Amino acid sequence: MIRILIFLAAVFALGLGFAWLADRPGEMVVTFNGYQYQVSLMVAAVAIVAVVAAVMIVWWLIKSLWNSPYTISRYFRVRRRDRGYQALSTGMIAAGAGDGALARKKTKEAAKLIRSDQEPLIHLLEAQASLLEGDHEGAREKFEAMLDDPEMRLLGLRGLYLEAERLGDRNAARHYAGRAAAVAPQLAWAAESTLEDLTGRGDWDGALKLVEAQKSTRQIERDAANRRRAVLLTAKAQALTDSDPNAAKTAAVEANKLAPDFAPAAVAAANLLFKQNDVRKGSKILEAAWKAEPHPEIAELYTHARPGDAVVDRLNRAKKLQELKRNNAESSMTVARAALDAQDFSTARREAEAAIRMDRREGAYLLLADIEEAETGDQGKIRQLLSKAVRAPRDPAWVADGVVSERWAPVSPVSGKLDAFAWRAPMERLGQLIDSHEGTPGAEVPAIAAPVVSVKEKPADVIYHPAVSAGKTPVTTGAAAESGEDLVTPVTAAAFAAVPTDAEAVEPAEELARLPDDPGVDPDEEAEKSPRRFRLF
């Protein structure tokens, strides 16, 4: 288009020039070799233009003849390259469709028509064809060869990473992912795998740097990056609590600023501040976190902020939390616990009953049973409350990938995923599901998913399965698993429907069994049926 415009402009300029000469007649005299030539200006201008045009045409002809060998060879080269790229395109489509034979055929065809050092995609197609044919060793060799080419290095690392994942070699996979993340932190697969490796090894500073690189490359949003940083800083603070309290406090306070509603960060920051006698600042952090989302760990730390406080002072602090978050079951539970410690049974009972009205759950009934035992010692009422606790929904806990933990952890013990633990109620027990569907004509009992695993902080690292039927045996890990000992005796379904929160065996005379809320059941007779029981509170 531009060339056409330039040509039209040149013609227009020539036309203007000739018109200008036509309006101004004149003659031009040229003396050459004793002769005198006299022509008009118009004729002279036309002759000059004709000579220039002739010279240009002659030059173009000579140049075309001179370059004709190159032009012809380029034509055939372009045609050959087009055929090669067509074969390469067909091969890539075949590889994507899973046609290994066609992919291999087109790989050979493309390699003949295009030089492999000029087109890296030929190496990729060849590796894909090898994978489709089941030649994983050949594919790995191709991926390793790509590491020498800066343009193909990331592709080679990706292929080697996937092959290591296929073989189950996590160390090799993380090695390749780490190399890729060092060069290109914007790659999600490399960054996530490297982050999992760093957090698994407890390298919190390295993980923080990687998250910052992800944020700078806009791989993740700012809010998501802040959340990850808060989790990592909280984990760092927990790791440095004993060795470097000052660094731990700095990390925890920064985590709390990034995520004020993140309970573990608030608890870690406040706990470190309390240890340094900064009760005022620590209390403010807990109060802000409590307003955002009430949590029992916040309440426990807040009420015991000053170890020397009397039980009445702790009750007053619990009531202050309740004022910050009214009409909340956790607030009522906090006041009820503090009132029980202060022997204020009327307040404790009132608040526990209020918590049940707002959120019917196991812990509230167990707390009410504690109050009943401390105030009246009525075993009948206590057993009735324990029976209700069995049928009530479970209390919220830290849950990740089917694992229930008493304490928050930065990564999942199953998948290694960062920030996997969430504060929520574990899965329902079988007895609860059946009880919730009783009395509903035609109601079907929903299918029970895989049991929740409860991780307890015991010296033997016991993992308890909520036993729903008799004969279920807990799974043991750590030293207990190596010795082959069963740390817990199997229990019957009539004794209790799930493993309690405090799984310490007691003698039958000391136990408080969970019995069905049925007046026709004899508690003593049921107690004799169970070979071993557990204290529930």
UniProtKB/TrEMBL annotation:
<keyword id="KW-0812">Transmembrane</keyword>
<dbReference type="GO" id="GO:0016020">
    <property type="term" value="C:membrane"/>
</dbReference>
<keyword id="KW-0472">Membrane</keyword>
<feature type="domain" description="HemY N-terminal">
    <location>
        <begin position="26"/>
        <end position="133"/>
    </location>
</feature>
<dbReference type="InterPro" id="IPR010817">
    <property type="entry name" value="HemY_N"/>
</dbReference>
<keyword id="KW-1133">Transmembrane helix</keyword>
<feature type="transmembrane region" description="Helical">
    <location>
        <begin position="83"/>
        <end position="103"/>
    </location>
</feature>
<feature type="transmembrane region" description="Helical">
    <location>
        <begin position="37"/>
        <end position="62"/>
    </location>
</feature>
<feature type="region of interest" description="Disordered">
    <location>
        <begin position="502"/>
        <end position="537"/>
    </location>
</feature>
<dbReference type="Pfam" id="PF07219">
    <property type="entry name" value="HemY_N"/>
</dbReference>
<dbReference type="InterPro" id="IPR016982">
    <property type="entry name" value="Mms48"/>
</dbReference>
<dbReference type="InterPro" id="IPR011990">
    <property type="entry name" value="TPR-like_helical_dom_sf"/>
</dbReference>
<protein>
    <submittedName>
        <fullName>Heme biosynthesis protein HemY</fullName>
    </submittedName>
</protein>
